[in-house]
Amino acid sequence: MKKSDILLNKLSEFGITSFDKIWPDYIKELDLKKTDAKTLIQIIASSDLSVITTGASMEQFAPMHAWRALGQLHSKESIETLLNSLIEKKNQEAFWYRIELPNVIKQIGGEAIKQLEVFLKNEQTWEDKVIIINGLVEIALKDQEYKNQVEEIISEILKKYKKNDLAFNASILNAIFKLKPYNNKIVREIINKDKFDYSFIDRPELDKFIKNSKMYE
């Protein structure tokens, strides 16, 4: 049996899981090495991630365990495939992948930022961009050395707020609020001009921002 098939079988043995479950320590339990990343990447690239949901078989959950393992391996090499999988047509209903991708990105860390920034500059749906923005924020929350860089990347997107969908603006604000950007001029401008969708905004976080930034004092 090929090494890739052996790893696939081992991932399948982790069985059915869910996005709200604690992740196993794949590196320890499978004795994973950096060299295993190539196989894990191929498993994700060749799979239909839309089938991973309640009712899926044990075997169908193997790619979910694979993308988690890539995060734990801090695999910078996997970013291209992770991003491509997000926008591939076959994965349009890969809701659990979308939920967990920001956490995978967080674990890969700062080395992923450059490729994520390029993704955000390209023509993508705003919903897909929000997932990547959330991933960037998770990196900054994990490691403060990236906070200013991440806030700057997100601010560049917000500068186009007049052209953005208002729901997109609200979703970006929800993400950047976690960085406590109380002196961010573009964030204050968007809020002051009501250029966001109130039905999408996190109202408690909005109120906290307005209070802590002393916008109207």
Based on secondary structure, the structural category is mainly alpha
Shape by Cα distribution: elongated
**Mean residue pLDDT:** 93
The SSE order reads HHHHHHHHHHHH
Helix content: 55-70%
In whole angstroms, the N-to-C terminal distance is 69 Å
Radius of gyration: 19 Å
For the secondary structure, the number of strands is 0
Taken as a percent bin, the fraction of beta residues is under 5%
For the report, how would you describe the main beta sheet? none
Unreliable residue stretches: none
Secondary structure tally, helices: 12
Organism: Flavobacterium pectinovorum
Protein name: HEAT repeat domain-containing protein
Give structural notes.
With 217 residues, the chain is mainly alpha-helical. The chain has twelve helices and no strands. It has helices spanning 3-13, 26-30, 37-45, 62-72, 79-87, 95-108, 113-121, 126-142, 147-158, 166-176, 185-192, 203-212. Helix 3 (37-45) packs across helix 4 (62-72), helix 8 (126-142) packs antiparallel against helix 9 (147-158) and helix 8 runs parallel beside helix 10 (166-176). This is HEAT repeat domain-containing protein.
Explain briefly what this protein structure is.
With 217 residues, this protein is an all-alpha fold. The protein has helices at 3-13, 26-30, 37-45, 62-72, 79-87, 95-108, 113-121, 126-142, 147-158, 166-176, 185-192, 203-212. The chain has twelve helices and no strands.
